[in-house]
Amino acid sequence: MSTAAQAMVAATARLREADVDDPARDARILLAHAAQVDASRVTLIAPDDLSPEIAERYEQLIALRTQRVPVSHLIGQREFYGRPFKVSRDVLDPRPETETLIEAALAEPFAGVLDIGTGSGCILVTLLAEREAAVGVGVDLSEAACLQAAANAVLNQVEQRADIYQSDWFGSVRGRYDLIVSNPPYLAAQEMDDVSPELRNHEPRMALTDEADGLTGYRILASLGQGFLDHKGRLLAEIGWMQGADVLALFHEAGWENPRLLQDLDGRDRVLCAEKPA
């Protein structure tokens, strides 16, 4: 029998050998999950011997993580903008870069928001949670993603103000909104060979790539988005960090007002912002 501290040291070494990015962090989070304690309390149990049941659960979790199954899939959730979101292999993990889009959306008032390709619902649910008078619609081609987003709306207590349903882009959408948000699949097909095993093997391919040049979603947003916006409504879309010039050109050509790019905390182009012309 080993102590929790010894088990974490051994697990960290195994994860490092598997080329996991932050092995010590993952070893700590997974031990907390196995022991059913908060991650911040792991140091308190470090001197204690692990029970056989906890040790077995921990071994299973570490074995899966060495196969590059994402931590969020192993523990069933991920935090985004300070709130919990249930995740699975049916949706993309919420990522910190997307908070750049959230901040931009919250910088101006909105009453109705449309989220195209809602996935886990992290964008729509966060915006509704932050703006208690707002209502919103989230659509996704994946029925499984819609179910996940609906569950996250319930988890974060915004389900009464969120309508989530299946749609191929704008195909089933009705009405007009003063804010459209989207995090479309923006990896080109040729980029998929270079992404991490966590992405390539455990997250939905259709949410990552358009199987073309990575710009399909932006062409659709640029050409159709104005028809679903109220007077002077806004559109915000997350982009790949090397796509800025191409995406800007699409929105300029489609006649949007003031297309511009916002940078994430690493200084990379991350969000396209544009307004419907007056």
Characterise the protein shown here:
With 278 residues, this protein is an alpha/beta fold. It has two domains: 4-67; 92-275, Vaccinia Virus protein VP39 (Rossmann fold), CATH 3.40.50. The protein contains eleven helices and nine strands. The strands form two sheets. The protein has a seven-stranded mixed β-sheet, with helices on both faces. A two-stranded antiparallel sheet has the order 1-2. Strand 1 (77-80) and strand 2 (83-86) form a beta hairpin. It is elongated and about 70 Å long. The N and C termini lie far apart (70 Å). 38% of the residues are buried. The model has no long low-confidence stretch (mean pLDDT 95).
Describe the secondary structure blueprint for this structure.
Layout: H1 4-17, H2 23-35, H3 42-45, H4 52-66, H5 71-75, E1 77-80, E2 83-86, H6 99-106, E3 112-116, H7 122-130, E4 135-140, H8 143-155, E5 162-166, E6 177-182, H9 197-202, H10 216-224, E7 229-238, H11 244-253, E8 257-263, E9 269-275
Parallel strand pairs: 3-4, 3-6, 4-5, 6-7
Antiparallel strand pairs: 1-2, 7-9, 8-9
Unreliable sequence segments: none
The CATH fourth-level homologous superfamily of the largest domain: Vaccinia Virus protein VP39
**How much β-strand is present in the residues?**
15-25%
Number of helices: 11
Terminal Cα span: 70 Å
Order of secondary-structure elements: HHHHHEEHEHEHEEHHEHEE
Instruction: Label the structural class.
Output: alpha/beta
Strands of the widest sheet, in order across it, are 5-4-3-6-7-9-8
Say how many strands there are: 9
Rg, Å, rounded: 21 Å
Characterize the main sheet. Answer: 7 strands, mixed
CATH class category label of the largest domain? Alpha Beta
> How would you describe the oligomerization state of the chains in this entry?
single chain
CATH topology of the largest domain, anyone?
A: Rossmann fold
Label the overall shape: elongated
Number of domains: 2
Mean of all residue-level pLDDT scores: 95
Helix percent reads 25-40%
What is the CATH-assigned architecture of the largest domain? 3-Layer(aba) Sandwich
